[in-house]
Amino acid sequence: MSTTVKVIIGAAIALVAGIVICGIAFAIGGKTNMGIGSTEYVTEVFEIEDEFTNISVTALTSDITIDRSDDGKCRVEFFQPDYMELEAGVNNGTLEIEVNEDDPARLVFNIMSKTPTIKVYLPEEVYEDLSIDVTTGDIILGGISYGGSVDIKVTTGDIGIGNNVSDDLTYGDLNIEVNTGDIVIDNVGCQDLIYNVVTGDIQLRDVLAADNINITGTTGDLTFDGCDAGRITVNLVTGDINGTLLTDKDFDAHNVAGDIDVPSSSEGGRCELTTTTGDIVIDIES
Q: What is the residue-wise DSSP string for 177-235?
């Protein structure tokens, strides 16, 4: 069989397969309200009047912003595809915010031309616990302090905490888990900071942890800018570790490839810095 004939037969098979797959997709779409095409968006605002101390946000794909309200009222603003189920209400002292799709398969056949968002405006300066769980989306936390734990889980998205906030924010424990995304934390004091990332750069500016800063990453650089903690532990596979700390530390720095330049002081809390490939350069602010 000639090469030309083989190519023609292969193309014909691919064409038939494509037609069959499209036919199945449209057939399924007819039963589940799926449709190939652009997505329509709606804006919906929930006014929250019940009292609460905790906040929980769950979504599949959304950029999430949580900040102070400018009018002393609590509200949740959704900008979402029109087929999403939007929920915002208080349950047992927790403001629960959710975006659900009752037929997840429909997401595959709809093209999102815009970015879904959830904006939460809070009237108080301090709340207790905050939980955010989102698959894809950026997260921005503004001028709110949290006395309890702040737990953030993101598969893909950047995180900004305390950026452009004039007053220092105080948290209890700050636990963050990200697969892919950069993070910037600015002007935050906490008890413990635990951050796990697969791929992404980390910038900590004026971050003070009473007990521990514990950071684990696969690929990405870490920068400290005027930070401190009772104990600092960093483990990277590929990435530089650099910047400034506020007080002397008992340094233990290791890498396989790259330069190491840390203060020789053995006083202060333990500071263990490890990267397989990358430079480790730390100074103590005078």
A: EEEE--EEEEEEEEEEEEEEEEE--EEEEEEEEEEEEEEEEEE--EEEEEEEEEEEEEE
Which tokens in the block code for residue 162?
């305390």
158 in Cβ contact with 135 (< 8 Å):
no
Q: What is the DSSP string of 243-263?
A: EEESS-EEEEEEEEES-EE--
153-179 pLDDT, tens digit each: 999 999 999 987 767 899 999 999 999
Mean pLDDT of 202-216: 97
pLDDT digits (tens, 9 = 90+) for 71-117: 999 999 999 999 899 999 999 999 999 998 755 555 544 556 689 99
